[in-house]
Design brief:
This protein has about 260 residues and is an alpha+beta fold. The protein is built from ten helices and five strands, in the order H-H-H-E-H-H-E-H-H-H-E-H-E-E-H. Strands 1, 2, 3, 4 and 5 form a five-stranded antiparallel β-sheet that branches. Helix 1 packs antiparallel against helix 2 and helix 3 packs across helix 8. It is globular, with a radius of gyration of 20 Å. The N terminus is likely disordered.
């Protein structure tokens, strides 16, 4: 997952693009503080080495726990790393994952992003890679579905409700469905965590690069083999400034009533 090179372009805190600012001034119902937070929540990769108080980290996890939970199962767990010795063990793994990303998917700028902006983003990624051992805190969201409780009668009723073709597609696509179901129980909470970090003046960014070496990460962190990890979120005080995000206009992405 990538975002703009936020630290390379400074801007005053809570500065929002014009269209976002207009929404934010729509009164209390528009949620001006929330909109200002969302519109200035850049991926901040350059962090100060100063420790983050434990109570602030707990507030971030609290915000994540408040997120939606599929079936209200609440099977999430959060590994919070602040021990420099553990971070030092993770640093070479992070370097390998980042280097693998930059050699493949991250080799070229995404469509619509100019080369200079992309180079600034890569410079921030490389800075974080080179200083990862000094990361004040790292949060790893985890999730594990309980064993399914499905009976033969329920399977027959499900197939009847879906129809034969859809039931077959569902059976063959079960792996994707399971992954998306778990992700839908985790990532809304992670977004809450990122919003809370921004509101508290903390820098954070979401990555999934650790999945390239997930077994090794889990071994260092003592995460059970049957527990899935979904992100690695470095957290700390920013070296740069928060500023407006740059995203495609709503008019370009919305499809009303049908595609």
């Amino acid at each position: 997952m990538t975002s703009e090179a936020s630290e390379a372009q400074t801007a005053p805190a809570h500065t929002a693009p014009a269209d976002t600012a207009a929404v934010a001034t729509g009164g209390p119902a528009a949620g001006p503080e929330l909109f200002a937070t969302m519109s200035t929540m850049r991926a901040m990769r350059r962090l100060k080495a100063d420790p983050v108080p434990e109570e602030l980290l707990d507030r971030l996890v609290q915000a994540a726990v408040w997120g939606p939970s599929g079936g209200n199962m609440q099977r999430f767990e959060y590994v919070v790393v602040t021990d420099r010795a553990v971070m030092a063990e993770l640093a070479p793994l992070w370097r390998r994952c980042v280097d693998a990303y930059l050699a493949t998917t991250g080799r070229y700028a995404p469509s619509g992003m100019d080369e200079a902006a992309y180079r600034r983003m890569v410079a921030a990624i490389e800075y974080q890679r080179d200083h990862f051992a000094d990361t004040p805190a790292l949060i790893v969201p985890c999730y594990r579905f309980p064993p399914p409780r499905i009976e033969e009668e329920g399977l027959r009723a499900s197939a009847e409700a879906l129809g034969p073709q859809a039931a077959e597609r569902m059976a063959t696509g079960q792996t994707r469905f399971q992954a998306l179901a778990e992700g839908s129980c985790v990532y809304p909470g992670v977004q809450n965590l990122l919003l809370a970090a921004r509101a508290l003046g903390l820098a954070a960014n979401i990555t999934i690069w650790h999945l390239m070496l997930e077994d090794e990460w889990k071994q260092v962190l003592g995460i059970p083999a049957d527990m899935n990890t979904f992100a690695a979120v470095p957290v700390g005080r920013p070296l740069g400034n928060f500023g407006p995000v740059r995203r495609r206009p709503v008019a370009e992405v919305v499809h009303r009533d049908r595609w």
